[in-house]
């Protein structure tokens, strides 16, 4: 079954909505420039009130490795998501599973493969990109595009879990999964109203994912 990550959580209430709806992971934006940024102290409080079965993901972009490691330990993060131009080998000592974000429009697939071969990352997040924004753009990936499908095939050959992001919402999630068969899906703006998480949209999104039968051949979760 396809896993679900609700990203951009900013309050305990939002986190509980996602948990109650059946989310597998929650994402917290630790990028100060992001409109969904959450202070580490607030994040620490939220995580302390979540069930241990929920995977907690910290999203960073070009932050110093020591800073990332400090927040990872302070907040008891399970996973870190590197969403910038980081050199993954600089983060190998951070005590968490590492996911690397990859934009379809970026020409750095060779670098990504090198990081995979070195065992530096344990998952790949495919996202759309708008200059100056770090995820949550609401822009969908071109799932039917032949170039996109070719890159997706190459990435899946690495056998690492592939997480699909980029403009997902309750209306398009079924088509997106059927065209890409990811290990997991990641949503942020697609379950928001007026810039804040919406309980009903979170529920609708997760139910559509969990009720969809797919032939998902991705590797086990990292």
UniProtKB/TrEMBL annotation:
Family the entry assigns: Belongs to the TrpF family.
Keyword Isomerase (UniProt): yes
Keyword field contains Lipid biosynthesis: no
Metabolic or biological pathway, per its Swiss-Prot or TrEMBL entry: Amino-acid biosynthesis; L-tryptophan biosynthesis; L-tryptophan from chorismate: step 3/5
EC number(s) stated in the UniProt entry for this protein: 5.3.1.24
Gene name linked to the record: trpF
GO biological process, any: L-tryptophan biosynthetic process
Lineage: Bacteria, Bacillati, Bacillota, Clostridia, Eubacteriales
Protein's recorded name: N-(5'-phosphoribosyl)anthranilate isomerase
Residues of the N-(5'phosphoribosyl) anthranilate isomerase (PRAI) domain: 4-208
Catalyses which reaction(s): N-(5-phospho-beta-D-ribosyl)anthranilate = 1-(2-carboxyphenylamino)-1-deoxy-D-ribulose 5-phosphate
InterPro entries named in the record: Aldolase_TIM (IPR013785), PRAI_dom (IPR001240), RibuloseP-bd_barrel (IPR011060), TrpF_fam (IPR044643)
Keywords: Amino-acid biosynthesis, Aromatic amino acid biosynthesis, Isomerase, Tryptophan biosynthesis
GO molecular function, a single term: phosphoribosylanthranilate isomerase activity
């Amino acid at each position: 079954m396809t896993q679900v990550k609700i990203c951009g959580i900013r309050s305990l209430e939002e986190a509980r909505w996602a948990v109650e709806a059946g989310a597998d992971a929650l994402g917290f934006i630790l990028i100060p420039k992001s409109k969904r940024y959450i202070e580490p102290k607030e994040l620490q409080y939220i995580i302390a009130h979540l069930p241990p079965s929920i995977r907690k993901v910290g999203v960073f972009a070009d932050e110093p490795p020591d800073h990332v490691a400090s927040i990872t330990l302070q907040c008891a993060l399970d996973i870190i998501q590197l969403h910038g131009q980081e050199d993954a080998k600089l983060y190998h000592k951070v005590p968490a599973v590492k996911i690397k974000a990859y934009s379809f429009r970026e020409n750095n697939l060779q670098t990504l493969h090198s990081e995979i071969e070195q065992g530096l990352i344990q998952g790949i997040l495919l996202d759309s990109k708008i200059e100056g924004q770090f995820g949550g753009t609401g822009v969908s990936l071109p799932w039917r595009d032949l170039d996109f499908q070719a890159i997706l095939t190459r990435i899946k050959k690495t056998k690492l879990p592939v997480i699909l992001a980029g403009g997902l919402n309750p209306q398009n999630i079924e088509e997106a999964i059927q065209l890409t068969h990811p290990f997991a899906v990641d949503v942020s703006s697609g379950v928001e109203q007026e810039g804040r998480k919406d309980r009903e949209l979170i529920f609708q999104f997760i139910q559509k994912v969990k009720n969809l039968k797919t032939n998902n051949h991705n590797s086990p979760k990292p």
